[in-house]
Design goal:
Blueprint (H helix, E strand, L loop, with lengths): L36 H8 L10 E2 L2 E2 L6 H13 L5 H33 L6 H10 L3 H11 L6 H17 L3 H24 L22 H18 L5 H24 L5 H30 L16
Antiparallel strand pairs: 1-2
Helix pairs in contact: 3-7, 3-10, 5-9, 6-7, 7-8, 7-10, 8-9, 8-10, 9-10
C-alpha cells in the first residue's frame, strides 16, 4: 500500500527492498592498541625524529643484517600483533633491565669465587698501589674535580643540561626520552649491584678525601658515565653526516667513560674490579636502550624485511 507525503502531491520515491530485520551498519574495524591520531603523534614525537635520522653514515638502523638481529626483529614483529611500537620499546627495556640486573647478581657470584682464588681481584691491590705512587696534592685536586662530574650531583646536572640543549637545538624530544631512560636504568643497576654484593671500599687510609662510605661494587660513577657517554654518542651519530665528526664523537665518549673509571681507582674510592664490572654493565644497558629504540623505529617504518643493505641512506662525506 502506497502512502503520500502530506503536501507533496505525489508518491514518494520507492524504498530499497528490506530482507528481514533492518541491517546495522558494519562497525568500524577495531585496531588493537590504537589511540586518537593526535595522541599518537604526541607520543611518537618522544622517540621518532623522522626517517632522515635512521642512519649512522650509510648504515640503516632499521635493517638487521646479523642472525641475532633478525631473531630480535622477528620477535618484535610478532609482538606487534598485540602491542604498539612504543609498547614494544618499553617491553624491551623492562626485559633488558631484568636481564642486566641478573648479570649483576651473577657478577657478584663470580666476585666471591675469584676472591678465594685471587684471580681477577689480584689486579685490585696492584692498581691501588700504582695510584698511590703517582699522587700529588695538585693532581689529587684536579682528579677530584673531574670525578665529581660523574657523581650524584654532577651527572644529573650534566645529563639534564645535555638533554635540554639537544632538544632545543634539534626541536625534538628524543634526546630527553633516551637520556632520561638511560640514566634511570643506570641508577637502578647501580643500586641493585651495591645491594646484592655489599663490597667494602678500599681502606680510607689509601683514599683521597672527601671519603665515600657506600658500598663499592659496582662503581656508580663509572656505570653512569659509560651509559651517559654512550647514549649521547648514539644521538649525535644519527645526526652527523661527516665521518670524521662521528669518529671524534666516539673517541670523546670512550675517553670520558674510561677516564671517569680510572679516576675512581686513582682516588682510592673503588677497586679495579668495581670499575671493570661497571664498564661492562654500562655497555650492556646501553645496548639494551639502543636496541629497543632501533626496534621501535623498525616497527614504525613497517620494514618487515630484515635485509642487511645500507638502505640508501645519507652517505659519508
Amino acid at each position: 500500500m502506497s502512502t503520500t507525503t502530506p503536501g507533496s502531491g505525489g508518491a514518494p520515491p520507492p524504498r530499497p527492498p528490506s530482507h528481514g530485520p533492518r541491517a546495522r551498519r558494519p562497525a568500524p574495524t577495531e585496531q588493537p592498541n590504537e589511540r586518537p591520531t593526535g595522541q599518537l603523534e604526541v607520543l611518537d614525537e618522544l622517540l621518532d625524529d623522522g626517517r632522515q635520522d635512521d642512519f649512522v653514515g650509510g648504515r640503516d638502523l632499521t635493517h638487521w643484517p646479523t642472525a641475532a638481529g633478525r631473531a630480535l626483529h622477528a620477535a618484535a614483529v610478532r609482538a606487534r600483533r598485540w602491542l604498539a611500537p612504543r609498547e614494544v620499546w618499553a617491553l624491551t627495556l623492562v626485559v633488558g633491565l631484568v636481564v642486566t640486573a641478573a648479570f649483576t647478581a651473577a657478577a657478584a657470584g663470580v666476585y666471591d669465587a675469584v676472591v678465594e682464588g685471587d684471580g681477577v681481584t689480584g689486579l685490585d691491590q696492584p692498581a691501588l698501589q700504582l695510584a698511590l705512587q703517582h699522587r700529588s696534592p695538585g693532581l689529587d685536586t684536579a682528579v677530584t674535580f673531574y670525578t665529581d662530574i660523574g657523581g650524584p650531583v654532577g651527572m644529573p646536572l650534566l645529563a639534564a643540561a645535555t638533554a635540554a640543549a639537544l632538544a632545543i637545538a634539534w626541536r625534538r624530544w628524543t634526546p630527553v626520552t633516551l637520556l632520561v631512560t638511560t640514566m634511570l636504568g643506570s641508577l637502578a643497576l647501580t643500586m641493585a649491584g651495591k645491594a646484592s654484593v655489599g663490597r667494602a671500599r678500599p681502606p680510607l687510609a689509601d683514599a683521597v678525601p672527601p671519603y665515600e662510605h657506600s658500598f663499592s661494587f659496582p662503581s656508580g660513577h663509572t656505570l653512569n658515565a659509560t651509559a651517559f657517554a654512550g647514549i649521547v654518542a648514539y644521538l649525535l651519530l644519527r645526526r652527523l653526516r661527516a665521518a670524521w665528526a662521528r669518529r671524534l664523537v666516539v673517541v670523546v665518549a670512550v675517553l670520558f667513560a674510561v677516564t671517569i673509571g680510572l679516576s675512581r681507582i686513582f682516588l682510592g674510592h673503588h677497586w679495579f674490579t668495581d670499575v671493570l664490572v661497571a664498564w661492562v654493565l654500562g655497555l650492556a644497558w646501553l645496548g639494551v636502550v639502543i636496541t629497543g629504540h632501533r626496534l621501535y623505529l623498525t616497527l614504525r617504518r613497517g620494514q618487515h624485511s630484515a635485509g642487511g643493505g645500507s638502505g640508501g641512506g645519507p652517505r659519508d662525506r
